[in-house]
Design a protein that fits this description.
single chain; mainly alpha; Growth Hormone, Chain: A; 2 domains; transmembrane helix; MFS_sugar_transport-like; membrane; MFS transporter
């Protein structure tokens, strides 16, 4: 269910780009390139609002209900997109859709982590997050099949059909055992843990340690706990890490084909490089998560980010074919693979009482990088400094992210360390 929910995000990523040519030609709209960019920014702004707002709400009302609310919200937003009668109405609908998308991500990641066996948490999280590229592939195939014959509105109407998942979610999607324990619903949590083979004793011990830390003061949860004096520095470091990773991912996805062409490679080869990069991303997701369950996320994230930075430096030097392909593969592995690991690292680092809040705030702030990434590429290309400088521009934030991760503790401080919030 979490996989299918996250696939919504991937679908939405592709559907706008796939329909832009038709939107530009829509009779009576008069939409131009600037308008297209503005609507794209509204979508990302809505996504950031959803991420930051939904995390604390998930810690308050539960992961299950917020996932269902987010799916409903996205479906309504997609329907409004299909029915939009003007660029302004379409932009507002895209913003609303973005809010719904941002709302499902923190809850889905938190629930995936909390329902997984403790020695498979990162792997289960990575498997759920593979819904993102799968959703994009589904949208691309639907665009090929439907866009010419049925128009752009049909693709958004298909997105609205995601609401049909809600009955299955209502009956099949469980609540988080950790959330139930944190809310004092112990009997319900024990029964659910038994049904899904979740380590109930571990969840209970985590809740008891957190409760013991706050025994002398009112219980603190969610955003307030996450932003306490002992935790806010880690939140800012995680957010800076996410910012750098998102900047690299979105910058490379937009500019890599053009950069490779400017470096002297033909168009066909440039698109091939993008495919190799995505293959590296998928491989990095699963292999990195498998390693993280055994070594710890921090010990895998730092090498991944360094691989990304070094791979970009290799690409800047016009290497031989084998090194070229390894460089593109490493860029995908180190960028998208690091993004998946960062979700799991944040989720495993924070306790259940503020886990979704931390995921939402960290990734919401990190999404600023997704806005700046394409802009950084355009600035460097516009300055006519040479194609190698574009690779340098993305290698630097990858290296910076590795330095940031090195400043974060492998695991969270003991509960007594934040007893004074």
């Amino acid at each position: 269910m979490c996989f299918m929910t996250i696939a919504v995000d991937g679908y939405d990523l592709i559907v706008y780009g796939a329909t832009v040519p038709r939107l530009l030609a829509e009779p009576g709209w008069g939409l131009d390139a600037n308008g297209v960019g503005m609507i794209g920014s509204w979508t990302l702004a809505g996504l950031m609002v959803g991420l930051v707002g939904a995390g604390p709400l998930a810690d308050r009302i539960g992961r299950r209900w917020l996932i269902m609310l987010g799916v409903l919200w996205f479906s309504v937003g997609a329907l409004f997109c299909a029915l939009a009668h003007s660029p302004f109405a379409f932009g507002v609908a895209r913003f609303v859709t973005g809010v719904g998308l941002g709302g499902v991500v923190p809850s889905s990641v938190a629930l995936s982590i909390e329902c997984a066996p403790r020695n498979r948490r990162q792997l289960y999280n990575a498997l759920a997050l593979t819904g993102y590229p799968i959703g994009g592939v589904i949208c691309a195939l639907l665009a090929i099949a439907l866009l010419e014959s049925h128009g752009w509105r049909m693709l958004y109407a298909v997105g609205a059909l995601y609401a049909l998942l809600l009955p299955a979610m209502y009956f099949l999607l469980p609540e988080s055992v950790n959330y139930l324990v944190d809310r004092g619903r112990t009997d319900e949590a024990r029964a659910l843990a038994s049904r899904y083979a979740v380590d109930f004793d571990q969840a209970l011990q985590e809740e008891q340690r957190t409760h013991h830390a706050h025994s002398a003061s009112p219980r603190v949860r969610g955003l307030r706990l996450m932003m306490s004096s002992q935790w806010r520095a880690a939140v800012l470091l995680f957010a800076l890490m996410a910012f750098c990773v998102q900047l690299v991912i979105y910058g490379l996805n937009v500019w890599l084909p053009l950069l490779m062409r400017k470096a002297g490679y033909p168009l066909g080869s440039s698109l091939q490089f993008l495919l190799v990069m995505q293959f590296g991303a998928v491989s990095g997701n699963l292999f990195g998560a498998w390693l993280a369950d055994r070594l710890g996320s921090r010990k895998v994230l730092i090498p991944y980010l360094l691989i990304c930075g070094l791979s970009l430096l290799v690409l800047s030097q016009k290497p031989a074919y084998v090194w070229l392909m390894l460089g593109v593969f490493g860029a995908g592995l180190g960028s998208v693979g690091s993004a998946t690991l960062s979700y799991g690292y944040v989720a495993a680092w924070f306790p259940a009482s503020c886990r979704a809040s931390a995921i939402g705030v960290v990734q919401g702030l990190g999404r600023i990088g997704s806005i700046l990434g394409p802009m950084v590429g355009s600035w460097v290309i516009g300055a006519k400094l040479g194609p190698q400088w574009s690779f340098y521009a993305f290698a630097v934030p990858a290296m910076l992210a590795a330095v940031v991760v090195a400043q974060i503790r492998e695991s969270a401080p003991s509960p007594m360390a934040y007893a004074d919030v």
